[in-house]
Amino acid sequence: MSEKQAKVWLWIGSLLVFAVSLIHLSPLYLLAVNSFKTREELYENVLSLPKSLSFQYYQVAMERMNILTAIMNSFIITVVSTLLIILFSSMTAWVLARHEDRMWAKVIYMTFVATMLIPFQTLMMPLIQFFSQIQQTLGFQIIDTRQGLIFMYIGFGSAMSVFLYHGFVKSIPISLEEAGYIDGASPWTVFWRIVFPMLRPITNTVVILNVIWIWNDYLLPSLVLSSEHVKTIPLSTFSFFGQFTIQWNLAMAGLVMTILPVIIFYAVAQRNIIRGIADGAVK
Amino acid sequence: MKRKDWYWNLLFVGPTVCIFSLVVLVPFVMGISYSFVSWDGIAANAKRFIGFTNYVSAMSDTRFIRSAVKTFIFTAGAVVLTNALGLIVALLVTSKMKLAGVVRTFYFMPYLIGGLILGYIWKFIFSDGFAIIGNVTGWKFIFFNWLLNPTFALFALIFVSTWQTAGYVMIIYISGIQTIPQDLIEAAEVDGAHGWKLFWHIKFPLIMPAFTISLFMTLSNSFKIFDTNLSLTAGGPSNATELFAMNIYNEIFLNGNYGYGQAKAVLFFIIVAIFTLAQVSITKKREVGL
């Protein structure tokens, strides 16, 4: 086979793989095109492009799903939870990794790692019972509030995040920290000025993994939140689908709006997302 | 000095350990104690201690056992297909192919969309979408409403789960493949290893660590699937696709058997733990060092 022939075959093969990847994404195509169609048009041919671009279903779906409130809630809960997970678990992991020879650090770390095996379904009922009791006896607003849900996300997110940070801290040299102490800096300063900036690659991973999880999570918020004004995107999607007998064109318009933020996020941060996922898996 | 160290350590570790204990450890211990009582979830009603009765009942609960079997079938199917597809695509995009970046981007995309929303998208495709396509093309042996058939509804779940996670697993395999030194591949090619031989004897043993992680992730995620199950089939038709997590959820929150449902939840934890630990220790043995 000549070099030219080989090149042609490489392109044919590549285009075939590309075509298959387009088929892989075709459900999103179906979603988009059918969100613009009338009922008759939809049942005539699901695969065709819409005859006209009318946003009427978007408007109806937007109102019924309270989509703006839901996006706002999802955004606040995801961002605040992730920031606090980063703050708490990076500090914890650093101290635990730097005291690895001590019994207390070992016990705490192993507890974090071991609990990663517990499925959420094993914890959900007692979790809600426990926090309802706390709310009743101590008066903290936990159930049906954003701050209560964020508190729980910090608890559930810390094990994996501490685990990832812990592994990374062990790979960075201790000498810079020691130099900081000799200069008279406190552990607080040493951590935030010297250590934390060096943790950047793994912080990226921790952010990506937690954002994907919290943004899409359904079960925990469904047990904690019930009021309309605090509902997240998955919750409003669920009640939207439960409330009305499924009118698919309307449903499609709603679904397009729920995944639009994700697509924008992917378009903007694709490199970070893929690198974050890859780094998170190398253990 | 020593005393001061303690204050700092407490400041750094304390908040996380407190929150983690309240959210994970306390409910875990409470959960075990709930599994020994009979209770309907209403605070005013008494919790009656009944020992291991809940566990014994679970062993002869046909709906629970059937959901366990379905979960095993689902997990086996989803794990095999996800890893096969993810690995194939990873090998393709790390080869000399053109457009590799775009293909990688497209395959990873579904992973970012949540299981609940994906389930609704596919619910449309498998029900009305397939029916319409079947009418248009006449291929009704494949294009019919999958969600109304107990067997095909489970296939639909496997299919959607594979579609969602193959891209994620692909990323893990790509980073595994990229750690293989290029000169090693070239040396093997000089020695006459090509195609399948090159993959099976050289590449595959070297990507075993990636394989371990992918298997671990897909195994535990498939076992615990809930969101897609809820939105795609809601356990139907007639409970045929009610998997483990959903069975527990329904027992507790729909049937109001809090103690019994929690006993199932504890059993669920034990099974997940045994399987994932066994899998990790088995595949770890097959990893080779460079």
From TrEMBL, chain A:
Single GO BP term: transmembrane transport
Stored Gene3D superfamilies: MetI-like
Topology of the protein relative to the lipid bilayer: Multi-pass membrane protein
Domain ABC transmembrane type-1 span(s) in chain numbering: 71-269
CDD domains, alphabetized: TM_PBP2 (cd06261)
Keywords in alphabetical order: Cell membrane, Membrane, Transmembrane, Transmembrane helix, Transport
One Gene Ontology CC term in the entry: plasma membrane
Subcellular location: Cell membrane
Domain of life assignment: Bacteria
Pfam families, A to Z: BPD_transp_1
Family: Belongs to the binding-protein-dependent transport system permease family.
Protein name: Sugar ABC transporter permease
Native species: Bifidobacterium aquikefiri
UniProtKB/TrEMBL annotation, chain B:
GO cellular-component term (any): plasma membrane
Keyword Membrane: yes
Membrane-traversing stretches: 6-29, 72-93, 105-122, 154-177, 198-219, 265-282
Membrane topology: Multi-pass membrane protein
Positions of the ABC transmembrane type-1 domain: 68-279
InterPro entries, per database record: ABC_transporter_permease, MetI-like, MetI-like_sf
Keywords: Cell membrane, Membrane, Transmembrane, Transmembrane helix, Transport
GO biological process: transmembrane transport
Family: Belongs to the binding-protein-dependent transport system permease family.
Protein name: Multiple sugar-binding transport system permease
